[in-house]
Specification:
Distance between the termini: 72 Å
Strand order of the largest sheet: 1-2-3-5-4
Strand content: 15-25%
Number of helices: 5
Protein name: DI3L2 exonuclease
Keywords: Cytoplasm, Exonuclease, Hydrolase, Magnesium, Metal-binding, Nuclease, RNA-binding
Helix content: 25-40%
Order of helices and strands: HHEEEEEHHH
InterPro entries: Dis3_CSD2 (IPR041505), NA-bd_OB-fold (IPR012340), RNR_Ribonuclease (IPR050180)
Pfam families: OB_Dis3
CATH architecture of the domain at 87-181: Beta Barrel
CATH class of the domain at 87-181: Mainly Beta
Radius of gyration: 34 Å
GO molecular function: 3'-5'-RNA exonuclease activity; metal ion binding; poly(U) RNA binding
Length: about 220
């Protein structure tokens, strides 16, 4: 049978370090191997089966154990930076329980990215005829932004930002991906456009070409 070896040492033993501990454990294993063999034979004769070896002193100070025997544990204490944009692309649908109070206030948002949780969104953010004609919006893509997620709830809370269009079309799908990753795809401001050459068509001068590496 598998045997767990445990031992206890005082402060004087701790001064000898891990080498002393390993030597002591090795001696205990040898003794137990002999004891287990003799007691096993006796158990066969008497019909008694030994289940586990629980007696023996225990190690109270984990600092005496080698690192490979320790399980590292930790907990999150602070979020330095929120990497996700909290925006997701997905579909809206009515809640399953039509008799609940939540059904009268919220709809369910199901993200396309399954790494993002499902979200309760207010019915006020949904199209006006969504409750009466939910099938009309079954293939319509929406952008939802998560605003909260309570510890005792399986679903987050969020707000619908906008309707993108039909799923499967290039423009709505592209806009949804860019929004999820926080990419600014709005038009350039006049200040940015003024930095560009105004005399068109613009060409690179021969002198500029001579000191550049041509990667065309």
């Amino acid at each position: 049978p598998d045997v767990i070896i445990e031992a206890q040492f005082d402060d004087n033993d701790a001064e000898h370090g891990q080498d002393h501990l390993q030597d002591a454990l090795t001696d205990d294993i040898k003794k137990l191997s002999l004891d287990t063999g003799e007691k096993g034979k006796a158990a066969e004769v008497t019909g008694v089966h030994r289940i586990k070896q629980d007696d023996g002193p225990k190690v109270n100070d984990p600092r005496l154990l080698p690192d490979e025997f320790l399980q590292r544990t930790a907990k999150v204490v602070y979020i330095l930076e929120k990497k996700h944009s909290r925006a997701a692309t997905g579909f809206i649908k009515l809640l399953a329980d039509r008799n609940s109070e939540l059904f009268k206030r919220c709809a369910m948002f199901s993200p396309v990215d399954h790494r993002v949780p499902r979200v309760y969104v207010p019915l006020a953010d949904c199209p006006p005829d969504f409750v009466t004609k939910p099938e009309t919006y079954s293939q319509m893509l929406f952008i939802c932004r998560i605003v909260d997620w309570k510890e005792d709830s399986n679903f987050a809370s969020g707000q619908l930002c906008k309707s993108l269009g039909q799923a499967g079309e290039i423009e709505p799908e592209s806009e949804g991906i860019l929004t999820e990753y926080g990419v600014d795809f709005s038009d350039f401001s006049p200040e940015v456009l003024e930095c560009l050459p105004q005399n068109l068509p613009w060409v690179i001068s021969p002198g500029e070409l001579a000191k550049r590496r041509d990667l065309r």
